[in-house]
């Protein structure tokens, strides 16, 4: 069977049910995936209720109702099939839409998963969109949500743009008119909302000397170009608002700056995905910032607010999400400062820090990713946080950079193997992974992750020789 057949089969199964419960993940991919599926199902006359969870584990699986609805897992489930089976769900009442590593299981659940077919750069929302289109070919208006899920799950990061099926979906969105694709745009987060010098100074991929981590330097750099940086109301322009000609002048000056310092310009540009129907200077204008807005909702336990925004609410839900986004950023900034002030402990192949119970476990991974550019850029970072609900469990987040991946680093493999060894559970992606481990194993766990990372790097080197 191929991926297409799996999509067809799950769509066919869904159409046969009167009511469906969607169980989805609280991140941007899970929220946009749920919005795609629930809208496609409602349009087909199927009743839908949705449950959002942070992950599927023995405690959270109790939130899945034991009723006669069909259970559709989205952005999770593939790696937890044994738990789903142990909980008593039969193979006639479960479907899984996922892009994570699938776990062997006695019960063969219906599953649409792009990963076993080698589509490594497609998110769950991407798969959900394919299912939605199989339910009704008229569902192409949902493509923009799939773009948000794909971008939110970093599918565009490595190649500076979406590829494969995810790219095809973006082009369907463009054909529908809801997505505006900029083929050679500035590879920088915040092109719709941040004053350009701030936007540039926050960016470290590529790291531009004199500009990255240096807002003053970035501003002086732009001022020298002799182009207007503010509008008539003295507001700083955001990247999107510069004329094409001015964007060209800025881009070539940035390229020059990189080249002068011996850098490469390959990551200076990217394909970006804008939503022309959304209000200007809001995070809804492009896929990256939209995904952050949804992530903020999820991380602060209000994923359904994100879902309302995906369905078009630009009133109270949107205002609430904006507040969460502000709060989200403030706490992450505090966490970042805490990491930098406290300092990390460096091992041969890893740097780590324990933040105790100061920060919610849902944001420490983001803070760790941001701290990485200001710490040793050669080693992945591991951050530990106490679980508020259960202090005997420690939540671990790991973050790496593209550069580290090219040297062989695979955090998903390390997190999974190391946590299993100590009776925990882990998962994620090569560049970002997480785990839950017993508190008493923290020290040994870190040492073991360090050993695994050391092994990954040597393997890569020998492979090349
Ligand atoms: Mn995902």
Write the layout of secondary structure elements.
Blueprint: H1 3-15, E1 19-25, H2 28-43, E2 47-53, E3 70-74, H3 81-86, E4 94-98, E5 110-113, H4 124-135, H5 143-152, H6 164-176, E6 180-186, H7 196-202, H8 215-223, H9 244-260, E7 269-274, H10 287-299, H11 303-310, H12 316-342, E8 345-346, E9 351-354, H13 364-372, E10 381-386, E11 393-399, H14 402-406, H15 411-421, E12 425-428, E13 432-438, H16 442-464
Parallel strand pairs: 1-2, 1-3, 3-4, 4-5, 9-10
Antiparallel strand pairs: 6-7, 8-9, 10-11, 11-13, 12-13
Bound molecules: manganese (II) ion.
Manganese (II) ion binds near residues 123 and 124.
Structural features:
single chain, 465 residues, alpha/beta, inorganic pyrophosphatase (n-terminal core), Diaminopimelate Epimerase, Chain A, domain 1, six-stranded mixed β-sheet, 16 helices, 13 strands, binds manganese (II) ion
């Amino acid at each position: 069977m191929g991926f297409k057949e799996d999509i067809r089969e799950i769509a066919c199964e869904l159409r046969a049910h009167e009511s469906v419960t969607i169980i989805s993940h609280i991140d941007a991919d899970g929220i946009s995936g749920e919005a795609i599926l629930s809208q496609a199902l409602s349009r087909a006359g199927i009743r839908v209720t949705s449950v959002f969870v942070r992950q599927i584990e023995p405690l959270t699986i109790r939130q899945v109702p034991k009723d006669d609805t069909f259970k559709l897992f989205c952005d999770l489930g593939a790696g937890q099939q044994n738990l789903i089976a142990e909980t008593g769900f039969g193979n006639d009442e479960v479907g899984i839409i996922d892009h994570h590593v699938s776990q062997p299981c006695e019960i063969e659940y219906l599953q649409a998963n792009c990963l076993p077919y080698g589509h490594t750069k497609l998110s769950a929302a991407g798969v959900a969109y394919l299912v939605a289109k199989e339910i009704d070919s008229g569902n192409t208006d949902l493509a923009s949500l799939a773009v948000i899920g794909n971008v939110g799950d970093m599918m565009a990061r490595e190649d500076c743009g979406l590829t494969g099926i995810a790219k095809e979906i973006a082009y369907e969105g463009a054909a529908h008119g809801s997505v505006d694709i900029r083929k050679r745009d500035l590879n920088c987060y915040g092109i719709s909302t941040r004053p350009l010098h701030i936007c540039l100074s926050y960016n470290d991929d590529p790291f531009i000397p004199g500009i990255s981590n240096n807002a003053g330097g970035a501003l002086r750099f732009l001022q020298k170009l002799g182009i207007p940086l503010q509008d008539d109301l003295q507001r700083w322009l955001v990247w999107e608002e510069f004329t094409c000609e001015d964007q060209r002048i800025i881009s070539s000056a940035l390229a020059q700056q990189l080249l002068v310092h011996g850098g490469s310009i390959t990551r200076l540009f990217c394909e970006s995905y804008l939503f022309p129907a959304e209000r200007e200077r809001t995070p809804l204008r492009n896929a990256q910032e939209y995904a952050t807005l949804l992530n903020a909702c999820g991380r602060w336990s209000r994923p359904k607010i994100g879902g309302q925004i995906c369905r078009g609410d630009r009133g109270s839900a949107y205002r609430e999400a904006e507040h969460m986004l502000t709060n989200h950023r403030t706490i992450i900034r505090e966490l970042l400062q805490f990491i930098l002030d406290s300092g990390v402990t460096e091992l041969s192949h890893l740097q780590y820090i324990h933040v105790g119970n100061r920060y919610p476990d849902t944001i420490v991974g983001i803070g760790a990713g941001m701290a990485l550019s200001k710490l040793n850029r050669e080693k992945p970072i591991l951050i530990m946080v106490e679980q508020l609900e259960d202090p005997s469990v420690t939540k671990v987040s790991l973050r790496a950079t593209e550069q580290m991946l090219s040297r062989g680093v695979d955090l998903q493999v390390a997190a999974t193997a190391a946590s299993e060894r100590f009776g925990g559970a882990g998962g994620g992606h090569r560049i970002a992974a997480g785990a839950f481990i017993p508190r008493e194993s923290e020290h040994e766990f870190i040492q073991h992750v360090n050993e695994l990372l050391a092994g990954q790097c040597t393997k890569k080197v020998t492979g090349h020789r």
